Every structure is written in C-alpha cells, then in structure tokens.
Amino acid sequence: MAYRHVVGPRTHVFADLAALMAKATPVRSGDRLAGIAAESAEEEMAARWCLAEVPLSEILARPLIAYEDDDVTRLILDIHDAGAFAEIAHLTVGDFREFLLTASSDTLVRIAPGITPEIAAAVCKIMRNQDLILVARKCRVVTRFRSTIGLPGRLAVRLQPNHPTDDAAGITASIIDGLSYGCGDAVIGLNPASDSVSALSALLQLIDDLIQRLEIPTQGCILTHVTTTLEAMNRGLPVDLVFQSIAGTQGANASFGVTLPILKEAHEAALALKRGTVGDNCMYFETGQGSALSAGQHHGIDQQTLEARAYAVARPFRPLLVNTVVGFIGPEYLYDGKEIIRAGLEDHFCGKLMGVPLGCDVCYTNHAEADQNDMDTLLTLLGAAGCNFIMGVPGADDVMLNYQSTSFHDSLYLREVLGLKRAPEFEAWLERIGLTDADGTLLPEGASTRLIAGAPGLADRDVAA
C-alpha cells in the first residue's frame, strides 16, 4: 500500500510502510548507504507528516518483514500483549507522541508489552531530542542480579577492564582502578582477546575470585559468544551473566552465529545456576544501529527501526543489561557527532519504551567525524534521560577494541552534575569499605590499598608497573 503527502504543489509518494519510515528518519549515513534515505529535507518532512497520520493498529497489522520469513517478526507478533495495546490502539503515530509526552511512569510501564518495535521506531522519528529525553526519563525498567539497576535517580557503570593480551595483572589493575572510582555496579564486563573456553576459564575465575574475596555486590561477565558461555557453564565455570550481540532480523542474528533457541537454552542454563542474590535477571545483550545492514540482512528497512527490533529479541529473556554500542560500528552508519548523539537518544528511548533496560556505550571510532566533546554532550543528555548504565573504560580509550568510550571519572562528573547515585547495594558496599561517605562522595583517602591487598595475585609492584 502506497502512502502520500502533499507539500505545496508536490505530492510525495512512499511505496510502502518501510519506505515511509525510512524516509521519515533523521538523516544518517547508513540509510544513505542502503539507498533508502530521503532525497531532500522536504521529502523527509513530508514523510514525517505522513507517518504522523498512520494509525498504530495499521503498523501492527503490516509487518515490515513477513511473518513466515523471519523469526524476529514471529517473536514480536507471538508475544504481543493485545490487552496492553488496547489502551493505545485507537491512536495515530502523531497522537501517540502527544500521549507519551503527558503519560505517567505507571502508564508507560503498563503499555510497554503492547508496544512493538515498529511502533516505538515510528513515534521516535517524529520526536525532537527533548521529546526523547522527556519520555525516556519517565520509563522505569528495573532489573536485579546482585545489584539493582534502573531505580530512579541512579546511574550504574559497567567496569570494562579489557586488555589486548588478556593479561591477568593488567585486567586486575584496571578493575581495582575502576572500583576505586566507584565504578562497577552494573557489571565487571570483559571483552576477551581469545574466545577459547580454556582461555576464558582463567578470566572467569579471576573476576569471580575478586568479587567473592572483596564481597562486591556486583556481577561478572565475559563478553564471548553465547555458545562458548554455554560450554563454560557445562564445565562448571563461574558464570554470572550470559552475553550475546543481537540484531533485529533473523539473517543478521545468523551472521552472529546465534538463533532464538540458542538464546533460550543459554537463558535457562544461567537461571538454573541461581547465582543471583537479589534477582535472577541473568542475560546481557549488546546492539548497535547498522549491524543488519553490515550483514546484508536489512530487508530495505532503516537502521533505527531494525535497532528497535533487536530490543524485541532481548525483551522475552528479561535481561539485566542491554546496551547500544552507539558509535562503534563506524561512520559508514553514523557519520558524525550529530548522528551519533541522535542515535543514542533514539536507542535509549525505544528500548525503555518497550520495557527493556537500556544503557549506552557512549562511543566513537577514530575515523568518525566526532570527538570527546560530542560524547560529553551525549553522556549528559542520556544522564538527563535516565539511562540505566554507561561504560567505564580506563582513560576512555579501549586498548583492546581500539575505540573511544567514557572513562571512570566521566561517571563522577555525571553524578555530581545531575545528583545521581549508584546501585543501592554497591553504594552501601563502597561506604562500608571506607571509599565513599554516606552521600556516595569519594573520600580523599579511601580503601584503595585494601582493594589492592584483596585482589588475588596482584602485588603493589604490579600496580606500579
């Protein structure tokens, strides 16, 4: 079915819903690369006006990828909550925007199971940045394992101690450095240089020993392929969270070597371990705009809509953490700071609107037209929007993955400016060991020496080195 909108003497025609949504998307290099972006600012605005008049029920009734052709489409439609959708079923996309701007947090929680990714993406396209921030801030998605993530007025940090050779002393030094800044309440999450189970065994044990010895109320995760983590669990290794990169189409997920049944098997295996102390949210997913296009599995759909579909993959597995690695894929998909900032706000909004616990790796690659000032802007906007967690990377420069992210001290800035606290269990631990005061402020002389002394296999000379 074609869609039309008249601007002055010209009638803009959009072949179908996918084309309409693509051309209504704020400009970005990935959609241009795919040949689906609007050809002019006038066409882009005509598409947005047209999209605003489309009923939500029509979007639900017209899957962008056929039900029989894609298991992500089948998942979206099979678990759709018709009762939750009934509250908004009579609205158009434009009406839905107005509804969201005035809705309460309780209302947003109630309707989240009825919002499909295509609906979230559609309303996102007609919203200003301030709209995305305002609505996302009202969306509460709280998850628990050994710490509680997503409570109002709180911001968690993934401590990311990557090392180019998986050196145990180097990894441990980075962890202690991050803990001394009060980071790590979301997860201590390592991207390993090797994916063999034998190599990962030592890393899993290292992080688990550190958490247990220091009695840290957090969780560890090795960000390896889900099948490798399954094998690790089968061998009895200490696995807290199961990680996997996911995308918004069956074909894109296949390019990652993953299927929905594999994710289900891993989820059930992790649940059976019962390693959580305050909850059982035991999955960790990462996503990013452009992954489906990169795999040649985008089906002519814009990358922001496909990103929202990735959140639909995550949703039924009740993850502790989901984060968009917003600028990691490169300028072919998000060209400059402006595109990265917009994409980060879009991703956070869509995920939280769908009831998914969204965090963001505020990042860019060195060949993008972006710099740390752009990342400071996005970091601050996401803090205002109630982002669940951000990354903490030593020096903001990941020496293993070779990209720029946010540092340990960036979280101190955001907490001070916006009055944000850490996860409550982690905050209490920091005060108990003498690293922070009762308000969560780092003390001039904290517990760094005790942290070092408690770190297995790490001597003072290793830290100095």
From TrEMBL:
Which cofactors does this protein require? Answer: adenosylcob(III)alamin
> GO molecular function of the protein, one example?
ethanolamine ammonia-lyase activity
Record Gene3D superfamilies: Aldolase class I, ethanolamine ammonia-lyase heavy chain domain like, lyase
Query: Catalyzes what?
Result: ethanolamine = acetaldehyde + NH4(+)
Record keywords, A-Z? Bacterial microcompartment, Cobalamin, Cobalt, Lyase
Q: How is the quaternary structure described? A: The basic unit is a heterodimer which dimerizes to form tetramers. The heterotetramers trimerize; 6 large subunits form a core ring with 6 small subunits projecting outwards.
What does the UniProt record say this protein does?
A: Catalyzes the deamination of various vicinal amino-alcohols to oxo compounds. Allows this organism to utilize ethanolamine as the sole source of nitrogen and carbon in the presence of vitamin B12.
The identity of this protein, by name, is Ethanolamine ammonia-lyase large subunit
Q: What taxonomic ancestry is recorded?
A: Bacteria, Pseudomonadati, Pseudomonadota, Alphaproteobacteria, Hyphomicrobiales
